[in-house]
Amino acid sequence: MSEFLNQFKQLTATGYLFWVLAILALLSAVWVVTARNPIHSVLALIATFFCLSGHYILLNAQFLAAVNIIVYAGAIMVLFLFTIMFLNLRREDEESKTNLTKMAAVVVGGLLMVMLITIFRAKSAQVPTFNPVSFDSRTGLVENLGSILYSDYILPFELASVLFLVAMVGAVMLGKREAGDRHF
Amino acid sequence: MQPTQNVLIPEVIQQIPLTYYIIISTALFVIGIIGVLTRRNAIIIFMSIELMLNAVNLLLIAFSSYRSDSSGQVFVFFIMAVAAAEVSVGLAIIVMIYRNTRSIDVGLLNKLKW
Amino acid sequence: MDLTVLLVKGLIILVIFGITLLIATYSTYAERKVAAFLQDRLGPNRAGPFGLLQPIADAGKMFFKEDFIPAQASKWLFILGPCLAMLTALMSSAVIPFGDSIRLAWDGTNYDIPMQAIEINIGVLYIFGVVSLGVYGIMVGGWASNNKFSLLGAIRAASQNISYEIALGLSLIAILMMTGSLSLRAIVNEQATFFEWNVFTQPLGFIIFLTCAFAECNRTPFDLPECETELVGGYHTEYSSMKLGFYLFAEYINMFVSSAFISSLYFGGYHYPFMNAVHDGLTGSLGEIAGHNIATAIGTVVFFAKIFFFIFFFMWVRWTIPRFRYDQLMNLGWKSLIPLSILNVVVTGAGLLYDIKYTTWLIVVVMVVLALTSNARAPKSQAAPQRA
């Protein structure tokens, strides 16, 4: 523990920023799960995404930080907010599960977390660290990712476009009101 | 960890061991799982799944940055693409469910059993 | 030296912030004057000479009005809405290159400090991120008001912004393909010579971008979110006092920022014809440092002139063109602008393959021919039938 504290004292401003972002991300994630009002959940999830984008910037993955904001905060969460507003879910009419179920869920989650962390901390699974010699700080920049995306990963990239087409058709099909359906 | 003089290496990578990122993303993942297990609102369950996907994204980006391997970040890009497609279809399904049952409580969907 | 750079940067950020607010303030005045001019009225002329103190009087009125929060509203979100709107509006001006660079001499070396708050290599993506967040202020505020009209306005704004963002992004992709960079400064520097301004190489992209900018700013002819005849006041029906002021102010800041983007993406930013000759002449006659700084200042003035023209253009359009119907808006966005911008990307790509920059004129020519022929075939004296 004292070793940890010593390490904590040696951090620079960026290191503290890591801790602030990590704690904020976890707190807002908890808020997503516990909020009674779905709108508050959505806003908390947006906050989580912002903290994660901050982490990405700290890790010098600028492109994905921007894409995370654009795709998740800018498009996906707007869709969620949109759906919730359309369905007018502001009445907190969700009957909650029994306390027993909740306890069981938390216990299962806790066990899973302990298990995962134990696996990662096992001696045989040595967590690698960075290599100062071969470190490339340009890994997460647009030029680098773009050239890899369009050379090594060109097939998955093209398939993703097919996926989008299918998803678009599917969403339109599902959302389309047929004759005789009611207007919500 | 020995701080190196290489200024090109981001300070976080020099100061924070990769294990911390593993712990954070595991915690986010587990929070997502608890959300799926405890809530009955389909939209919040869906959001918990997004949270789990993002935990995985964080882990992939952390590993990819520490190891200077771009493949992890390309993977995250694809995860985001799949998540966007998944959300558009999933929310359409949720809206359909609401139209048919006037509720998005997943407990009411047990009719699917038979 | 680090400290000096930091100080100059901080100064630039503060100046940009101040200028943004000042321009937004005087845009309200300019809007009323332009409206008055277009409608053959006088406009505000009581407060101060030519009514120049009118914005200050308005702000004073806004501040002293009763700040009212409806009983059924969710209080924190009601306050958060305008804050988010203002925040996202102010954030986007950070990556605009306002001018070339300020040159400082220190210990015999010259330091060039770019006239830009932050220079990042993903400037365009940053703009997209901020633009896509702009919708939250409106949605949160509209939902929190707990009012049907506010909610409808918010939903309209959100769907409109999402729809037009796609065409906006696709029209920009053509520029990104030509520049090969996501940095706004690189895009501006690409347009150093007059006939390589993107408005000449990307005419269709420019028109699409301009239309989408109108829609993103919720300005007429796309101001359906706040359409008075249908929705009372749209998403800010329940707002009063400075919270309403924030929403209105955010709209003007958005207008300023999108004018700045249009001028730097399509009209060469701080470049103007014979810029190099002016720069060489000034450095020759006034010395390296003073000449460079004055040349930068001229570039910045030119840039602001372009911005002011586009702000005027926004107002001009507002007082000229009537509002669309909502289905017309959606049809225009999804069925015309998105396919056209995809076509634009494809044609630009084909042109780049053979190193021709002006291929998109082909689409423009074809479109004009099609428009002329279809107009010739349309029945003359009969109004177009309404949608069934």
* CATH-derived topology of the domain at 8-92 in chain A: Four Helix Bundle (Hemerythrin (Met), subunit A)
Looking at this structure, what is the CATH superfamily of the domain at 8-92 in chain A? NADH-ubiquinone/plastoquinone oxidoreductase chain 6, subunit NuoJ
Side by side, the strands of the main sheet of chain C go 1-2
Summarize model confidence as the mean pLDDT of chain C. Answer: 82
Low-confidence stretches of chain C: none
Distance between the termini of chain C: 69 Å
Structural class of chain C: mainly alpha
Helical coverage of chain A, percent range: over 70%
| Helicity range of chain C | 55-70%
Counted by DSSP, the helix tally of chain C is 14
Report the strand count of chain C: 2
The proportion of strand residues of chain C reads under 5%
* Secondary-structure element order of chain C, N to C: HHHEEHHHHHHHHHHH
Helix and strand sequence of chain A? HHHHHHH
- Shape descriptor of chain A reads extended
- Structural class by sheet pairing and helices of chain A: mainly alpha
Enzyme class (chain C): translocase
GO molecular function (chain C): NADH dehydrogenase activity; oxidoreductase activity, acting on NAD(P)H, quinone or similar compound as acceptor; quinone binding
Organism (chain C): Fibrisoma montanum
Pfam families (chain C): NADHdh
Properties at a glance:
heterotrimer, A: 184 residues, mainly alpha, Four Helix Bundle (Hemerythrin (Met), subunit A), extended, C: 388 residues, two-stranded antiparallel sheet, 14 helices, 2 strands, globular
